[in-house]
Write a structure and sequence with these properties.
single chain; 260 residues; mainly alpha; 12 helices; 0% strand; flat
Length: 260
């Protein structure tokens, strides 16, 4: 019975992997027809112009920062998201825009597998095969039940704002769990630094994801206090402080009033 159960789990793992990969084939096939649309052009034009004058990465980053400053005053305060929107792949060459669904699907699947591995294998001691079955199934349904695949995976401007930031949130949740588990000081320092960075990035993104990020950090602080892990409490407090500062900047942008 034990061998049969093991074989069944292995078969389910292979089947689930095959189902996910096969479901991606048509999505990645039509990626060759993906083109910039609407806000992709609006946000990316200054960067595209800068690259035509000086084809260097510093020029692209400087132009993207300029888009953030302009939109902060005229449209919205979500600074980190606008920075990424301005760097849409099409500014480096129209054909590069085709990598958009690869980036978004890859980020979503990778972050989902990362968090589920941490929760199931590291935390609960579940076998890797069971983790793969559940992680791949969750990835499959996250993709197939997306309300608008066009905006969630193919339209860079919309996908980076929601799909990519959702993936960032899953990674931050993974870091929070791992901070409670690890005992090595250098690992905690690295995880804490990445957590602070992600907190800053998420504070400059869409407000729906930011709200969940706020809840995650508050719960992490509460659990650290309950466990009397005061060093971790300070780490999460720092993340929340950075996140709060970024949200204040985002919410106070003059452009928000213009958009309303």
């Amino acid at each position: 019975l034990e061998r049969r159960a093991s074989s069944l789990v292995t078969c389910l793992c292979v089947v689930m992997l095959a189902v996910l990969l096969l479901s991606l084939v048509p999505m990645l096939y039509i990626a060759q027809y993906d083109l910039p649309l609407g806000d992709d052009v609006i946000y990316g034009s200054p960067v595209s112009s800068a690259l035509k004058q000086d084809a260097s990465l510093p020029s692209a980053l400087s132009a993207a920062a300029g888009v953030v400053a302009e939109k902060f005053q005229s449209w919205q305060g979500t600074f980190s998201a606008i920075f990424l929107m301005a760097l849409q792949p099409g500014v480096f060459g129209l054909s590069y825009y085709q990598i958009t669904p690869y980036l978004m699907l890859g980020a979503l699947i990778a972050s989902t597998l990362l968090l589920t591995y941490t929760l199931l294998c590291s935390l609960l001691g579940v076998s890797k095969r069971v983790w793969l079955i559940l992680g791949l199934a969750l990835s499959f349904f996250s993709i197939q039940l997306c309300v608008s695949p066009r905006e969630g995976f193919f339209w860079y401007n919309g996908a980076v704002y929601y799909t990519l930031y959702h993936s960032f949130l899953l990674v931050l949740a993974t870091l929070v769990v791992q901070l409670f588990r690890t005992k090595r000081l250098w690992v905690r320092i690295v995880l804490a630094a990445l957590g602070v960075l992600l907190s800053a990035i998420l504070s400059g993104g869409n407000y729906a994801t930011a709200m969940v990020c706020f809840e995650l950090l508050v719960c992490a602080m509460g659990y650290a206090a309950y466990k009397k892990q005061y060093r971790l409490l300070l780490v999460f407090a720092l993340m929340l402080l950075v996140f709060g500062a970024g949200m204040c900047i985002s919410v106070s942008a003059p452009g928000n009033a213009v958009r309303q």
